[in-house]
Specification:
The protein has about 240 residues and is mainly α. The chain is built from nine helices and two strands, in the order H-H-H-H-H-H-E-E-H-H-H. Helices cover about 75% and strands about 0% of the residues.
Length: about 240
């Protein structure tokens, strides 16, 4: 069944409820991040990831409640909210919450590319692995989000992989590892098809290490694709 058919199988009233709720919620999340940036003085590295985590965890919740159909509707709503923020542009609190100053003059580019990477990764995980896509949401939402704030706050031991890669820090990568492991533990707890037996407990740290390496080696802006697909694939192959 294609994506259109999956969404079309939702009753019209349910579609209206999901879209309205998703629009309001995603706008509230972005507005809160904007408030923290413009009023509370938080760095964009923090506010951007606060919005990132909110959206990924919300997608996981939507998936748990309404399945792939609900995720498609939620993703459409988030797209509209981000498009509105980009339309308002520099100086607007919604835009400033997610567009890093150090990315200038390509601030919008580094909002659009990661977001499309998020959509591609989420759709791929869902179409290939169904309910196990929740592992990708959680690792992408928590694991990937942990690196930049930790690196901004504590990063002293920096490293660069290849000329086209962005500079990262050992402290940030350790935060990715810890958050990825936490995300996988949460995934097992809510998945319903896996249990905390010895095999699962041995595999989780290994998958978290792989996710950390994926985050370190991914091209800048595109890590939201492998950070969703890789953990989901590994869970299905080694733990299901």
């Amino acid at each position: 069944m294609d994506t259109y058919s999956l969404v079309a199988s939702f009753p019209l009233k349910a579609i209206g409820v999901w879209v309205t709720t998703s629009l309001i919620w995603s706008y509230v999340c972005l507005r809160f991040a904007g408030y923290l940036k413009m009023k509370a003085g938080l760095r964009t590295g923090y506010t951007r990831k606060i919005f990132h985590i909110s959206i990924f965890l919300s997608a996981a919740a939507a998936h748990a409640i309404g399945g792939f159909q609900a995720v498609c509707l939620f993703g459409t709503s988030v797209t509209l909210v981000i498009a509105y923020a980009l339309f308002r542009g520099s100086g607007n609190h919604l835009y400033e919450a997610i567009a890093r100053e150090q990315d200038g003059p390509h601030r919008t580019y580094y909002v659009v590319v990661p977001y499309f990477a998020t959509l591609i990764g989420g759709l791929t995980s869902n179409l290939l692995f169904g309910p196990f896509a929740v592992f990708g949401y959680l690792v992408g939402g928590l694991g990937d989000a942990a690196g930049e704030p930790a690196g901004t706050r504590w990063g002293k031991n920096q490293y660069t992989i290849g000329r086209a890669m962005s500079t990262k820090s050992l402290e940030g990568s350790l935060a990715v590892l810890a958050a990825s492991l936490l995300a996988l533990l949460i995934g097992v707890a809510i998945n319903g098809q896996l249990h905390f037996d010895l095999r699962v407990l041995l595999m989780l740290p290994l998958i978290a290490i792989v996710c950390t390496l994926v985050e370190a080696f991914s091209p800048r802006g595109w890590d939201n694709v492998p950070m969703q697909v890789v953990p989901t694939l590994l869970v299905v192959v080694f733990m299901n």
